[in-house]
Amino acid sequence: MTGLNAVLWLLPDQNDQRIKPMEDRMKRKRMLAAALAGVMLLGTGCGREEETEEQTPSGTAVEVTEAASGPMSAEYSVTGKVVAVSEVQVFPMLAGQVLTLSVKAGDQVAKGQTLFTVDTATVTSGMGALQESYNATKAATDRAIESAQIGVTQAEQAVANAEALLEAGAAAPQDVTKAKQGLAQAKAGVAQAQAQQAASLAQIRASMDQVTTQASLGTVKAPCSGTVTTVNLVRGGMAASAQPGVIIAEGGKVEVQASVAEDVYMNLQNGDKASVLVSSVSDEPVQGTITELPAAANFQTSLYDVSVGLPAGVLPPIGAFATVTFYTNRRENTISVPTEAVLTGAEEERYVFVVDEAGEAARRVTVETGLVSKTSTEILSGLTAGEWVVIKGQSYLSDGAAVRVVDGAGTSADGEG
């Protein structure tokens, strides 16, 4: 192999995108040095057998990343719960045994659909007696009316007779007047009998209607369309008005409720975005929106119950748990590094290790930190964007220590293990 070929063989592939910019520069530097060394060896005699000795890489192996610039915010994650936006509680209006139960939690129901029925035997048990009383009263009053109408017929005949006698000169005018008075009284008797019948039957009918209305309460229907979230009844069990028999999420709309402490609550606003992860549904979070902030803390927990709306089409099951991440104190232009890069020294000093351009030495840099998110820490002073910060192996370093930059697999920038 000629010296030129050796140099060409050792040059790195310019299209290899897997090597970080810094690692690429380091690799080129080392390879160029190796190539020059190879040329020098070839110059001493091509026929001489080369003797090579593998050198052990020096320096502490570290992984690095660039100090990034851009927006950042503090993150606060809590466990929330999927709830209905609007819940409608359906109470049994009639106590009794549950005869039928046609829904269960999770079912979709339409307005007017029968949810369950309750035994109405206790209510309707007196209906037979009321019906008998109605029939008997009607029969008795019908006879009274019929008798009064017979009196009217007789009174009408008496008036006709009196008028005929008066015309024949056999009766006085007062006799006709008296007969007509008797007819008026007979007609009044019919009207009175009819009124008594109407009053008596109306009273009985009102009682019957009341029973019918109560019996109708035994069939309980959905007051709205939506999703059944809770069923507190069992078929054959007893229904009572003390608790709702069925709870419906009106329209099937859901949201997530999460409770936060006061320091977080004070930095939230309606319309702010929040990350919502319902692990029972998906491994990927969705972006929610704060829809309601309470005016006061929950009396029992002293926390603030925040409502977070979900994107259209996202309908996790009601009752599912969710991890909600709120973002506060958002800042647009920051420098940040992975949180694991920041170490703590004496008297709470915060510091990181920065690798030089050659990738051969690390220096300790004191930093001032700011916001802390789930993965990153804001650097207020001490670093500039683009500097290479040690994220693995930093605990083994001291100021000025020799380092060897490796990738996540433990391979150094020059390809050695």
Task: Describe the structure in your own words.
- The protein is an alpha+beta fold.
- The protein has five domains: 1-41; 63-71 and 331-405, conserved putative lor/sdh protein from methanococcus maripaludis s2 fold (Beta Barrel); 76-85 and 251-330, Efflux pump adaptor protein, beta barrel domain (Elongation Factor Tu (Ef-tu), domain 3, Beta Barrel); 88-118 and 221-248, RNA polymerase II/Efflux pump adaptor protein, barrel-sandwich hybrid domain (OB fold (Dihydrolipoamide Acetyltransferase, E2P), Beta Barrel); 124-216, Helix Hairpins (Orthogonal Bundle), CATH 1.10.287.
- Helices cover 30% and strands 32% of the residues.
- The protein contains six helices and 21 strands.
- The protein has helices spanning 3-10, 21-43, 121-124, 127-168, 173-216, 262-265; strands spanning 60-66, 68-84, 87-90, 96-101, 108-109, 114-118, 219-221, 226-231, 238-239, 246-250, 254-260, 273-277, 286-292, 304-309, 321-338, 343-344, 350-355, 362-372, 376-381, 388-392, 403-405.
- The strands form three sheets. A six-stranded antiparallel beta barrel has the order 2-11-14-13-12-15. Strands 3-10-8-5 form a four-stranded antiparallel β-sheet, with no helix packed on it. It has a four-stranded antiparallel β-sheet with strand order 7-6-4-9, with no helix packed on it.
- The chain starts with a helix and ends in a 12-residue tail after the last strand.
- The model is unreliable at 1-20 and 39-52 (pLDDT under 50).
Which helices and strands occur, and which strands form pairs?
Blueprint: H1 3-10, H2 21-43, E1 60-66, E2 68-84, E3 87-90, E4 96-101, E5 108-109, E6 114-118, H3 121-124, H4 127-168, H5 173-216, E7 219-221, E8 226-231, E9 238-239, E10 246-250, E11 254-260, H6 262-265, E12 273-277, E13 286-292, E14 304-309, E15 321-338, E16 343-344, E17 350-355, E18 362-372, E19 376-381, E20 388-392, E21 403-405
Parallel strand pairs: 1-21
Antiparallel strand pairs: 1-20, 2-11, 2-15, 3-10, 4-6, 4-9, 5-8, 6-7, 8-10, 11-14, 12-13, 12-15, 13-14, 15-19, 16-17, 17-18, 17-20, 18-19
Helix pairs in contact: 1-2, 4-5
